[in-house]
Amino acid sequence: MTSPLPDKAADTTAEQPWPVRVLSLKISDYVDRMSQLWVEGQVVQFNPRGGTAFLTLRDPDVDMSLSVSVPMNAVNAMPIPLAQGARVVLQAKPTFWTKRGTLQLEARQIRPVGIGDLLARVEILKRTLAAEGVFDAERKRPIPFLPRRVGLVTGRNSAAEKDVVENARRRWPAVAFEIREVAVQGSSAVTEVVAALRELDALPTVDVIVIARGGGALEELLPFSNEAMIRAVAEARTPVISAIGHDVDQPLLDLVADWRASTPTDAGKKVVPDAARERSTVDGARDRLRRALVRRVESERSGLRALVSRPVMADPVALVRARRQEVAALRSRATTRIEARLHRAADQTEHLRRQVLALSPQSTLERGYAVVQHRDGRIVMDRDDVGVGELLRVRVARGDFGVRPVGDGAHDAPEPRTTRTRPTGDGTSAARKAARPTARATTSRKAAAARNATEAAVKQGVKKAAAATAARDADTSTAKKAATPPVEPLPLDPETARGDDGSDGGDGGDDTPTS
After folding, report:
1. In CATH, which superfamily holds the domain spanning 119-273?
2. CB of 393 within 8 A of CB of 499?
3. Which of 308, 356, 396, 476 is 20 to 30 Å apart from 433, CA to CA?
4. pLDDT, tens digit, for every residue of 75-104?
């Protein structure tokens, strides 16, 4: 005993499947429950047999179709004869043939779609696309002046193809075409035109695409107002030229195309320039350029003749002679000013040199002053800084010598034979501290101040004397050397502390003072 079949498709399994008859009967039962409906399409096949006409009804936009059977009395009741390609609307009941597993429509009534209805639908589509901006001028692309290759979408062996190609080659013989022959009317027109358009748009060598078709009835031009075709043209990257029908025809393709040609012949004229006209334009431009160049050369020649005819050109040296005196005066004035500036600079340099010499420590020594130094080179500034018997170095204008002070400062000491000057005092230590500095200490302070002033004066003088003459610069260099004698510690050991005459600074060769 076999198990019962599942009632629902969802309950079927590999162990309990439905037989084909069960599935066909269930589909037929489902379709039979559908009510009658109205459907619109395009008749692509029409085959009357006996009292029934069999036809294929195709969707006008996409490649889908259904088989339809309709009584001949309904066909004969139409106001116009039914023909292939006609747009119709019919009332039908879907049926499913279980033996062949096919779906078809059993029509009860059939009516042609009126022109008014078609135009109304086109107008509604036009408004919808315009609201989306599909027809806006801002999105239209410019047509290239001279395309490398022209894509052409047209009917097979049509007059439109000849019109476009012949007129284009008559204007520009070297133009190249990429032609796609398609159906331009009927149920497959939209599909084939869109496919050819996309194929040409993908070719990088195609610079412009022409969609051309000759004139015809309004129903025959309806594919070029189809929404699918309009959107395909709007999405294309290559500029598109529309050349559909005659000038009075205006499908929606004319509105979306980048350029509208009134006829295929007009498209052939617009897609390429006129070689003869362009050659004439180039010849005219070349002639205008030649005439302009001749006029310019003649104008320059006349100008040169006018210049040569001037008196100054008859004796060109006259202009030089007229300027010679002016040049001489300018030269004399420049020489005088330069010499005056040099004299001022020389006087200023001499003045600075004398100032430097006057502030030089050597000049101070020349006036009879001396500089007294300790063994380590420090200048003696105070009598109390000198120890009894300390060997000191005395620098004078011409040379130096060593001395030893006498006395401890408690009383006046007699002048030693080895010195030319001696410190004076009142005999007491307090009196010596309160007394004014000795002449030698005063000399040392003045020498230090003079040295500082000399350094500042030398820096100032070097800047001002930079522009002086070479001879003055030599004098200035000598003065600066004299202004800054090196003061360095002298060796004051007993063997080297000798005077100029080989003595130790005393009169009798003994550095001990006499009582």
Report:
1. Succinyl-CoA synthetase domains (3.40.50.261)
2. no
3. 396
4. 888 877 887 777 888 889 999 988 888 889
